[in-house]
Protein backbone atom coordinates (compact mmCIF):
# COMPACT_ATOMS: atom_id res chain seq x y z
CA UNK A 1 0.00 0.00 0.00
CA UNK A 2 1.19 3.51 -0.76
CA UNK A 3 0.33 4.66 2.76
CA UNK A 4 3.30 2.87 4.33
CA UNK A 5 5.83 5.22 5.91
CA UNK A 6 3.36 7.99 6.64
CA UNK A 7 2.73 9.66 9.97
CA UNK A 8 -0.43 11.71 10.53
CA UNK A 9 -0.68 14.93 12.51
CA UNK A 10 -4.25 15.23 13.81
CA UNK A 11 -5.02 18.96 13.80
CA UNK A 12 -8.18 18.74 15.87
CA UNK A 13 -9.66 17.82 19.23
CA UNK A 14 -12.41 15.88 20.96
CA UNK A 15 -14.55 13.22 19.32
CA UNK A 16 -13.21 13.65 15.78
CA UNK A 17 -9.61 13.44 17.01
CA UNK A 18 -10.48 10.15 18.73
CA UNK A 19 -11.99 8.74 15.55
CA UNK A 20 -8.99 9.78 13.44
CA UNK A 21 -6.62 8.13 15.95
CA UNK A 22 -8.65 4.93 15.81
CA UNK A 23 -8.66 5.00 12.00
CA UNK A 24 -4.87 5.53 11.95
CA UNK A 25 -4.48 2.60 14.33
CA UNK A 26 -6.63 0.42 12.06
CA UNK A 27 -4.39 1.33 9.12
CA UNK A 28 -1.18 0.75 11.10
CA UNK A 29 -0.18 4.41 10.86
CA UNK A 30 1.57 6.35 13.63
CA UNK A 31 0.10 9.72 14.56
CA UNK A 32 0.74 12.88 16.53
CA UNK A 33 -2.13 14.37 18.53
CA UNK A 34 -2.64 17.94 19.75
CA UNK A 35 -4.18 19.42 22.86
CA UNK A 36 -4.48 22.81 24.53
CA UNK A 37 -4.32 23.66 28.23
CA UNK A 38 -8.12 23.93 28.27
CA UNK A 39 -8.37 20.41 26.82
CA UNK A 40 -5.86 18.78 29.15
CA UNK A 41 -8.57 16.61 30.78
CA UNK A 42 -10.21 15.56 27.51
CA UNK A 43 -10.58 11.87 26.81
CA UNK A 44 -8.90 12.29 23.44
CA UNK A 45 -5.62 12.47 25.37
CA UNK A 46 -6.39 9.10 26.98
CA UNK A 47 -6.93 7.54 23.55
CA UNK A 48 -3.71 9.08 22.22
CA UNK A 49 -1.74 7.60 25.12
CA UNK A 50 -3.36 4.20 24.65
CA UNK A 51 -2.90 4.00 20.88
CA UNK A 52 0.20 6.13 20.34
CA UNK A 53 1.99 6.42 23.65
CA UNK A 54 2.81 9.52 25.70
CA UNK A 55 5.17 10.82 22.99
CA UNK A 56 2.30 11.07 20.51
CA UNK A 57 0.89 14.07 22.42
CA UNK A 58 1.90 17.67 21.75
CA UNK A 59 0.58 20.70 23.56
CA UNK A 60 -0.22 23.81 21.53
CA UNK A 61 -1.65 27.20 22.40
CA UNK A 62 -4.56 27.24 19.98
CA UNK A 63 -6.06 24.85 17.41
CA UNK A 64 -6.25 27.81 15.00
CA UNK A 65 -2.56 28.70 15.22
CA UNK A 66 -1.28 27.44 11.87
CA UNK A 67 2.34 28.19 12.70
CA UNK A 68 2.15 26.24 15.94
CA UNK A 69 0.51 23.27 14.20
CA UNK A 70 3.11 23.15 11.43
CA UNK A 71 5.96 23.44 13.95
CA UNK A 72 4.59 20.42 15.80
CA UNK A 73 4.26 18.58 12.49
CA UNK A 74 7.95 19.17 11.82
CA UNK A 75 8.98 18.21 15.35
CA UNK A 76 6.91 15.01 15.17
CA UNK A 77 8.14 14.12 11.68
CA UNK A 78 4.60 14.05 10.34
CA UNK A 79 4.16 13.49 6.61
CA UNK A 80 0.46 14.39 6.47
CA UNK A 81 -2.07 16.55 8.30
CA UNK A 82 -5.67 15.52 8.96
CA UNK A 83 -7.74 18.61 9.82
CA UNK A 84 -10.92 16.79 10.93
CA UNK A 85 -13.90 19.14 10.68
CA UNK A 86 -14.10 22.81 11.63
CA UNK A 87 -10.85 24.71 12.31
CA UNK A 88 -8.68 24.44 9.16
CA UNK A 89 -10.65 21.71 7.36
CA UNK A 90 -12.07 24.00 4.63
CA UNK A 91 -9.34 26.62 4.62
CA UNK A 92 -7.75 26.34 1.18
CA UNK A 93 -4.92 28.67 2.16
CA UNK A 94 -3.89 26.34 4.98
CA UNK A 95 -4.21 23.29 2.70
CA UNK A 96 -2.06 25.03 0.10
CA UNK A 97 0.53 25.96 2.70
CA UNK A 98 0.74 22.33 3.88
CA UNK A 99 1.53 21.00 0.41
CA UNK A 100 3.71 23.88 -0.86
CA UNK A 101 6.00 24.57 2.11
CA UNK A 102 9.71 23.62 1.97
CA UNK A 103 9.01 20.41 3.91
CA UNK A 104 5.85 19.60 2.01
CA UNK A 105 3.23 17.31 3.54
CA UNK A 106 -0.02 15.76 2.38
CA UNK A 107 -3.27 17.47 3.30
CA UNK A 108 -5.88 14.81 4.03
CA UNK A 109 -8.83 16.37 2.33
CA UNK A 110 -9.48 17.50 -1.21
CA UNK A 111 -6.77 19.39 -3.09
CA UNK A 112 -6.59 23.05 -2.13
CA UNK A 113 -7.84 24.11 -5.57
CA UNK A 114 -11.02 22.05 -5.09
CA UNK A 115 -11.54 23.47 -1.60
CA UNK A 116 -11.15 26.98 -3.03
CA UNK A 117 -13.44 26.43 -6.01
CA UNK A 118 -16.28 24.72 -4.11
CA UNK A 119 -15.93 27.00 -1.07
CA UNK A 120 -17.11 29.85 -3.31
CA UNK A 121 -20.90 29.40 -3.28
CA UNK A 122 -21.35 31.52 -6.41
CA UNK A 123 -18.82 29.39 -8.27
CA UNK A 124 -20.46 26.18 -7.02
CA UNK A 125 -23.84 27.40 -8.25
CA UNK A 126 -22.36 28.30 -11.63
CA UNK A 127 -20.76 24.86 -12.05
CA UNK A 128 -24.02 23.19 -11.03
CA UNK A 129 -26.08 25.15 -13.53
CA UNK A 130 -23.76 24.35 -16.43
CA UNK A 131 -24.42 20.66 -15.63
CA UNK A 132 -28.17 21.08 -15.34
CA UNK A 133 -28.10 20.60 -11.57
CA UNK A 134 -30.92 22.51 -9.82
CA UNK A 135 -29.78 25.21 -7.40
CA UNK A 136 -31.77 27.60 -5.24
CA UNK A 137 -33.40 29.90 -7.81
CA UNK A 138 -31.69 33.26 -8.15
CA UNK A 139 -28.49 34.83 -9.39
CA UNK A 140 -25.33 32.76 -9.79
CA UNK A 141 -23.11 35.85 -9.86
CA UNK A 142 -22.93 39.21 -8.15
CA UNK A 143 -25.44 41.69 -9.60
CA UNK A 144 -24.36 45.33 -9.96
CA UNK A 145 -27.17 46.69 -12.15
CA UNK A 146 -30.45 47.69 -10.50
CA UNK A 147 -32.61 46.92 -13.56
CA UNK A 148 -31.12 43.43 -13.83
CA UNK A 149 -31.69 42.92 -10.10
CA UNK A 150 -35.34 43.90 -10.46
CA UNK A 151 -35.82 41.50 -13.39
CA UNK A 152 -34.39 38.62 -11.34
CA UNK A 153 -36.57 39.48 -8.35
CA UNK A 154 -39.71 39.66 -10.50
CA UNK A 155 -38.95 36.25 -12.01
CA UNK A 156 -38.48 34.78 -8.53
CA UNK A 157 -41.80 36.15 -7.26
CA UNK A 158 -43.50 34.70 -10.37
CA UNK A 159 -41.75 31.34 -9.89
CA UNK A 160 -42.89 31.10 -6.26
CA UNK A 161 -46.46 32.00 -7.21
CA UNK A 162 -46.46 29.17 -9.75
CA UNK A 163 -45.23 26.79 -7.02
CA UNK A 164 -48.27 27.71 -4.94
CA UNK A 165 -46.31 29.57 -2.26
CA UNK A 166 -48.78 31.85 -0.46
CA UNK A 167 -46.17 34.25 0.88
CA UNK A 168 -43.32 34.53 -1.63
CA UNK A 169 -40.10 35.96 -0.24
CA UNK A 170 -36.88 37.00 -1.97
CA UNK A 171 -33.51 37.14 -0.20
CA UNK A 172 -31.09 39.98 -0.94
CA UNK A 173 -27.48 39.31 0.09
CA UNK A 174 -24.21 41.17 -0.07
CA UNK A 175 -22.18 38.91 -2.36
CA UNK A 176 -18.93 39.75 -0.58
CA UNK A 177 -20.42 39.10 2.87
CA UNK A 178 -20.48 36.02 5.02
CA UNK A 179 -21.56 34.73 8.39
CA UNK A 180 -25.06 36.16 8.00
CA UNK A 181 -23.86 39.73 7.38
CA UNK A 182 -25.65 41.88 4.83
CA UNK A 183 -28.77 39.77 4.30
CA UNK A 184 -32.39 40.86 4.23
CA UNK A 185 -35.63 39.58 2.76
CA UNK A 186 -38.61 41.22 1.08
CA UNK A 187 -42.12 40.15 0.13
CA UNK A 188 -42.93 42.40 -2.85
CA UNK A 189 -41.26 44.49 -5.54
CA UNK A 190 -41.88 47.83 -3.79
CA UNK A 191 -39.93 46.64 -0.76
CA UNK A 192 -37.35 44.94 -2.98
CA UNK A 193 -36.16 48.21 -4.52
CA UNK A 194 -35.54 49.77 -1.09
CA UNK A 195 -33.87 46.60 0.22
CA UNK A 196 -31.64 46.24 -2.83
CA UNK A 197 -30.33 49.80 -2.53
CA UNK A 198 -29.73 49.45 1.21
CA UNK A 199 -27.85 46.14 0.90
CA UNK A 200 -25.86 47.45 -2.08
CA UNK A 201 -24.78 50.52 -0.09
CA UNK A 202 -24.05 48.43 3.00
CA UNK A 203 -21.90 46.08 0.91
CA UNK A 204 -19.98 48.97 -0.61
CA UNK A 205 -19.29 50.52 2.82
CA UNK A 206 -18.43 47.26 4.54
CA UNK A 207 -16.71 45.18 1.85
CA UNK A 208 -15.82 47.79 -0.79
CA UNK A 209 -17.91 45.80 -3.26
CA UNK A 210 -21.52 46.69 -4.12
CA UNK A 211 -22.33 43.30 -5.70
CA UNK A 212 -25.60 41.73 -4.54
CA UNK A 213 -27.01 38.19 -4.76
CA UNK A 214 -30.74 37.62 -5.15
CA UNK A 215 -32.27 34.26 -4.21
CA UNK A 216 -35.57 32.66 -3.42
CA UNK A 217 -36.23 32.25 0.30
CA UNK A 218 -37.25 28.66 1.00
CA UNK A 219 -39.10 28.22 4.30
CA UNK A 220 -40.49 24.70 4.55
CA UNK A 221 -37.94 22.14 3.44
CA UNK A 222 -36.05 19.03 4.41
CA UNK A 223 -32.27 19.20 4.59
CA UNK A 224 -30.68 16.24 2.80
CA UNK A 225 -27.05 15.34 2.16
CA UNK A 226 -25.18 13.08 -0.24
CA UNK A 227 -21.93 11.47 0.95
CA UNK A 228 -19.29 11.37 -1.79
CA UNK A 229 -15.92 9.54 -1.76
CA UNK A 230 -13.32 9.76 -4.54
CA UNK A 231 -9.61 9.01 -4.77
CA UNK A 232 -6.80 11.32 -5.89
CA UNK A 233 -7.49 10.59 -9.57
CA UNK A 234 -10.74 12.55 -9.22
CA UNK A 235 -12.27 10.34 -11.91
CA UNK A 236 -14.14 7.64 -10.01
CA UNK A 237 -16.40 9.14 -7.31
CA UNK A 238 -18.91 6.93 -5.54
CA UNK A 239 -21.70 7.87 -3.17
CA UNK A 240 -22.39 6.34 0.23
CA UNK A 241 -26.05 7.23 0.21
CA UNK A 242 -28.11 10.08 1.58
CA UNK A 243 -28.83 11.55 5.01
CA UNK A 244 -31.68 13.64 6.38
CA UNK A 245 -30.45 16.37 8.72
CA UNK A 246 -33.71 18.28 9.18
CA UNK A 247 -33.84 18.05 13.00
CA UNK A 248 -31.91 21.15 13.97
CA UNK A 249 -31.72 23.79 16.66
CA UNK A 250 -33.25 27.22 15.99
CA UNK A 251 -29.72 28.28 15.01
CA UNK A 252 -29.74 25.63 12.25
CA UNK A 253 -27.27 23.38 14.06
CA UNK A 254 -27.96 19.70 13.39
CA UNK A 255 -29.13 17.52 16.27
CA UNK A 256 -30.31 14.27 14.60
CA UNK A 257 -29.19 12.76 11.29
CA UNK A 258 -30.88 9.81 9.61
CA UNK A 259 -29.66 7.63 6.74
CA UNK A 260 -31.16 7.24 4.18
CA UNK A 261 -32.65 10.69 3.60
CA UNK A 262 -36.24 9.49 3.05
CA UNK A 263 -38.04 6.21 3.81
CA UNK A 264 -40.51 5.55 0.97
CA UNK A 265 -40.94 1.99 2.25
CA UNK A 266 -42.79 3.34 5.26
CA UNK A 267 -44.29 6.71 4.29
CA UNK A 268 -46.53 7.88 1.48
CA UNK A 269 -44.78 11.11 0.53
CA UNK A 270 -46.57 13.60 -1.72
CA UNK A 271 -43.77 13.13 -4.27
CA UNK A 272 -41.64 10.27 -5.60
CA UNK A 273 -39.14 10.15 -2.74
CA UNK A 274 -36.99 7.44 -4.27
CA UNK A 275 -36.63 9.50 -7.46
CA UNK A 276 -35.52 12.51 -5.39
CA UNK A 277 -32.87 10.39 -3.64
CA UNK A 278 -31.68 8.97 -6.98
CA UNK A 279 -31.64 12.43 -8.56
CA UNK A 280 -29.60 14.15 -5.85
CA UNK A 281 -27.01 11.34 -5.76
CA UNK A 282 -26.72 11.49 -9.56
CA UNK A 283 -26.43 15.28 -9.56
CA UNK A 284 -23.82 15.21 -6.80
CA UNK A 285 -21.71 12.65 -8.66
CA UNK A 286 -21.88 14.73 -11.84
CA UNK A 287 -20.37 17.76 -10.06
CA UNK A 288 -17.74 15.59 -8.37
CA UNK A 289 -16.66 14.24 -11.75
CA UNK A 290 -16.69 17.69 -13.39
CA UNK A 291 -14.45 19.28 -10.75
CA UNK A 292 -12.34 16.11 -10.24
CA UNK A 293 -13.20 15.91 -6.56
CA UNK A 294 -10.46 13.90 -4.86
CA UNK A 295 -11.39 12.97 -1.27
CA UNK A 296 -14.43 12.73 1.01
CA UNK A 297 -17.12 15.42 0.78
CA UNK A 298 -20.79 16.19 1.31
CA UNK A 299 -23.26 17.72 -1.12
CA UNK A 300 -25.97 19.59 0.80
CA UNK A 301 -29.51 19.81 -0.58
CA UNK A 302 -32.84 21.28 0.34
CA UNK A 303 -36.01 19.50 -0.80
CA UNK A 304 -39.33 21.35 -0.91
CA UNK A 305 -42.70 19.79 0.05
CA UNK A 306 -43.31 19.28 -3.68
CA UNK A 307 -40.19 17.15 -3.94
CA UNK A 308 -38.10 19.79 -5.73
CA UNK A 309 -34.39 19.46 -4.80
CA UNK A 310 -31.99 22.42 -4.82
CA UNK A 311 -28.24 22.20 -4.22
CA UNK A 312 -27.19 24.50 -1.38
CA UNK A 313 -23.44 23.96 -1.07
CA UNK A 314 -20.60 21.46 -0.95
CA UNK A 315 -18.71 20.76 2.28
CA UNK A 316 -15.16 19.81 1.31
CA UNK A 317 -14.37 17.86 4.49
CA UNK A 318 -15.40 14.90 6.60
CA UNK A 319 -18.61 15.70 8.49
CA UNK A 320 -19.67 14.88 12.02
CA UNK A 321 -22.35 12.55 10.69
CA UNK A 322 -20.16 10.42 8.41
CA UNK A 323 -20.70 7.40 10.66
CA UNK A 324 -24.47 7.27 10.15
CA UNK A 325 -23.88 6.79 6.42
CA UNK A 326 -21.19 4.19 7.05
CA UNK A 327 -23.44 2.15 9.34
CA UNK A 328 -25.95 1.37 6.56
CA UNK A 329 -23.25 0.73 3.93
CA UNK A 330 -21.32 -2.31 2.75
CA UNK A 331 -18.48 -2.60 0.24
CA UNK A 332 -18.56 -5.96 -1.55
CA UNK A 333 -20.64 -7.30 1.32
CA UNK A 334 -18.26 -6.07 4.04
CA UNK A 335 -20.21 -4.11 6.70
CA UNK A 336 -17.02 -2.71 8.26
CA UNK A 337 -17.19 0.64 6.47
CA UNK A 338 -15.31 3.53 8.07
CA UNK A 339 -15.31 6.72 6.02
CA UNK A 340 -12.57 8.38 8.09
CA UNK A 341 -10.37 5.37 7.41
CA UNK A 342 -11.24 5.63 3.72
CA UNK A 343 -10.48 9.35 3.76
CA UNK A 344 -6.99 8.76 5.15
CA UNK A 345 -6.25 5.84 2.82
CA UNK A 346 -7.22 7.61 -0.39
CA UNK A 347 -5.86 10.93 0.88
CA UNK A 348 -2.43 9.31 1.08
CA UNK A 349 -2.71 8.10 -2.50
CA UNK A 350 -4.31 4.68 -2.40
CA UNK A 351 -6.72 3.99 -5.26
CA UNK A 352 -10.37 3.72 -4.27
CA UNK A 353 -10.44 0.04 -5.25
CA UNK A 354 -14.19 -0.33 -5.78
CA UNK A 355 -17.02 1.08 -7.86
CA UNK A 356 -20.58 2.18 -7.18
CA UNK A 357 -21.79 -1.33 -7.99
CA UNK A 358 -19.77 -2.63 -5.02
CA UNK A 359 -21.52 -0.29 -2.54
CA UNK A 360 -24.81 -1.55 -1.10
CA UNK A 361 -27.14 -0.28 1.60
CA UNK A 362 -29.13 -1.99 4.32
CA UNK A 363 -31.37 -0.69 7.08
CA UNK A 364 -31.65 2.71 8.73
CA UNK A 365 -29.13 4.62 10.81
CA UNK A 366 -29.92 7.34 13.36
CA UNK A 367 -27.26 9.61 14.83
CA UNK A 368 -27.95 11.63 17.98
CA UNK A 369 -25.69 14.53 18.94
CA UNK A 370 -25.56 14.61 22.74
CA UNK A 371 -24.97 18.20 23.80
CA UNK A 372 -24.88 20.06 27.10
CA UNK A 373 -27.47 22.74 26.32
CA UNK A 374 -30.70 24.16 27.64
CA UNK A 375 -33.17 23.45 24.85
CA UNK A 376 -35.96 25.29 26.69
CA UNK A 377 -33.88 28.47 26.86
CA UNK A 378 -32.81 29.06 23.27
CA UNK A 379 -30.45 26.06 23.19
CA UNK A 380 -27.93 28.01 25.23
CA UNK A 381 -24.80 26.04 26.19
CA UNK A 382 -24.80 24.60 29.69
CA UNK A 383 -21.62 25.10 31.68
CA UNK A 384 -20.63 22.64 34.35
CA UNK A 385 -19.09 19.30 35.24
CA UNK A 386 -20.07 15.90 33.80
CA UNK A 387 -20.21 13.42 36.67
CA UNK A 388 -21.64 10.40 34.86
CA UNK A 389 -21.80 9.26 31.25
CA UNK A 390 -22.81 5.62 30.84
CA UNK A 391 -24.69 3.60 28.28
CA UNK A 392 -25.48 -0.06 27.76
CA UNK A 393 -23.34 -1.73 25.10
CA UNK A 394 -25.43 -3.06 22.20
CA UNK A 395 -24.42 -4.67 18.93
CA UNK A 396 -26.57 -2.07 17.12
CA UNK A 397 -25.03 0.92 18.95
CA UNK A 398 -21.81 2.90 18.48
CA UNK A 399 -20.91 5.82 20.75
CA UNK A 400 -18.10 8.26 19.96
CA UNK A 401 -17.05 10.55 22.78
CA UNK A 402 -14.10 12.44 24.23
CA UNK A 403 -15.80 12.69 27.63
CA UNK A 404 -13.97 10.42 30.10
CA UNK A 405 -16.24 7.76 31.59
CA UNK A 406 -13.91 6.96 34.51
CA UNK A 407 -13.74 10.42 36.09
CA UNK A 408 -15.55 13.75 36.24
CA UNK A 409 -15.07 16.14 33.34
CA UNK A 410 -15.33 19.91 33.36
CA UNK A 411 -16.67 21.11 30.02
CA UNK A 412 -14.24 23.72 28.63
CA UNK A 413 -16.13 26.93 27.94
CA UNK A 414 -13.74 27.71 25.08
CA UNK A 415 -15.32 25.05 22.84
CA UNK A 416 -18.76 23.83 21.83
CA UNK A 417 -20.39 21.68 24.55
CA UNK A 418 -20.74 18.63 22.29
CA UNK A 419 -20.40 15.55 24.46
CA UNK A 420 -20.92 12.47 22.32
CA UNK A 421 -22.37 10.97 19.16
CA UNK A 422 -24.59 7.90 19.33
CA UNK A 423 -25.20 5.94 16.12
CA UNK A 424 -28.04 3.41 16.11
CA UNK A 425 -28.77 0.85 13.38
CA UNK A 426 -32.07 -0.88 12.69
CA UNK A 427 -33.30 -3.14 9.90
CA UNK A 428 -35.96 -0.51 9.14
CA UNK A 429 -37.05 2.90 10.40
CA UNK A 430 -39.36 1.55 13.09
CA UNK A 431 -36.68 -0.66 14.60
CA UNK A 432 -34.08 2.13 14.44
CA UNK A 433 -36.47 4.54 16.20
CA UNK A 434 -37.38 1.96 18.86
CA UNK A 435 -33.71 1.26 19.52
CA UNK A 436 -32.94 4.98 19.55
CA UNK A 437 -35.57 5.60 22.22
CA UNK A 438 -34.24 2.66 24.22
CA UNK A 439 -30.73 4.11 24.11
CA UNK A 440 -31.86 7.60 25.15
CA UNK A 441 -34.03 6.29 27.99
CA UNK A 442 -31.25 4.04 29.31
CA UNK A 443 -28.53 6.69 29.01
CA UNK A 444 -26.97 7.94 32.23
CA UNK A 445 -25.87 11.54 31.68
CA UNK A 446 -25.57 13.59 34.85
CA UNK A 447 -23.62 16.55 36.15
CA UNK A 448 -23.85 19.82 38.04
CA UNK A 449 -23.01 23.46 37.56
CA UNK A 450 -20.92 25.66 39.86
CA UNK A 451 -23.98 26.43 42.00
CA UNK A 452 -24.85 22.76 42.40
CA UNK A 453 -27.74 22.88 39.92
CA UNK A 454 -28.47 19.76 37.85
CA UNK A 455 -27.10 19.29 34.35
CA UNK A 456 -29.11 20.33 31.32
CA UNK A 457 -28.79 18.35 28.09
CA UNK A 458 -30.69 17.97 24.83
CA UNK A 459 -31.78 14.38 25.58
CA UNK A 460 -35.47 15.37 26.15
CA UNK A 461 -35.42 17.22 22.80
CA UNK A 462 -33.96 14.15 21.05
CA UNK A 463 -36.59 11.91 22.62
CA UNK A 464 -39.41 14.18 21.44
CA UNK A 465 -38.07 14.49 17.89
CA UNK A 466 -37.52 10.76 17.33
CA UNK A 467 -41.22 10.04 16.85
CA UNK A 468 -41.49 11.89 13.52
CA UNK A 469 -38.16 11.19 11.86
CA UNK A 470 -38.25 11.21 8.01
CA UNK A 471 -41.86 12.34 7.89
CA UNK A 472 -42.41 15.28 5.55
From TrEMBL:
This is biotin carboxylase. Residues 125-348 form the ATP-grasp domain. Pfam families: Biotin_carb_C, Biotin_carb_N, CPSase_L_D2. The keyword Cytoplasm does not apply. PANTHER family: BIOTIN CARBOXYLASE, CHLOROPLASTIC, PYRUVATE CARBOXYLASE SUBUNIT A. It comes from the Bacteria. Its EC number is 6.3.4.14. This protein is a component of the acetyl coenzyme A carboxylase complex; first, biotin carboxylase catalyzes the carboxylation of the carrier protein and then the transcarboxylase transfers the carboxyl group to form malonyl-CoA. It catalyses: N(6)-biotinyl-L-lysyl-[protein] + hydrogencarbonate + ATP = N(6)-carboxybiotinyl-L-lysyl-[protein] + ADP + phosphate + H(+). It is an enzyme of class 6 (ligase). GO terms for molecular function: ATP binding; biotin carboxylase activity; metal ion binding.
